[in-house]
Amino acid sequence: MPEITSVDVERMTSALFIEPGVRSPSFTKFWTLLVLAALIASAGVVGDSTATVIGAMIVAPLMTPILGSALAFVLVDRTHLVRSVLLVLCGSAAVVAVGYLVGWVAAPPDDFAGNSQVAARISPHLIDLVAALATGTAGAFALARTDVSDALPGVAIAISLVPPLAVTGLLLDVHRYHDAGQSALLFGTNVAAIIATGIAVFLAYRVRAAAAAAGRHVGRLRGRGLALVGALLVLVAVPLTVGTLSVTHDRQLAADAGPVARRWADGHGWEVEAVSARDGKVEITVVGLPPAPDPEGLRAALDGAGAGDAPLLLHVLGGDSLLCPAHGGQCKAAHTATVPNPAS
Question: Which Pfam families is this protein grouped with (predicted)?
Answer without folding.
Answer: DUF389
